[in-house]
Specification:
The chain is mainly alpha-helical and 125 residues long. Helix content is 58%, strand content 3%. It has helices at residues 7-17, 28-37, 50-63, 71-85, 94-105, 111-120, and strands at 40-41, 44-45. The relative contact order is 0.17.
Amino acid sequence: MELHIDVPWILQVAEAAGADDPAPDDYGVPVSAVARHGAELFEHPVYDGPYAKAAALVHTLGRCRWLERSNMAVAAATGVMYLEAAGISVKPDREDAIALKDLLLDPACTAEKIAAVLRAWPTAS
């Protein structure tokens, strides 16, 4: 399944998960997250599959400051919502969320590492 998201979708997730954050400080971050998740090189996706695409979104939204106080929560929610939209129902628990937050805070964080974390999340039965 080819799933493409846009900036209004990310802003809706931010509104729902953003802990009453005011308007984003930097709209370039969600714009770049959208472009990154759909990036192609020589007509081949840079991020192949829903976990890799979700990880690219999470990495960009979580590592680049664009919200006053809820980057991590919005990044995690975006990952969950993207996987849900792709037909993968994940049910991360508190420890899963903390592991993702800790990874996002690590300077060595990469989209590939985030994809591995997302793949390890339990799925809904």
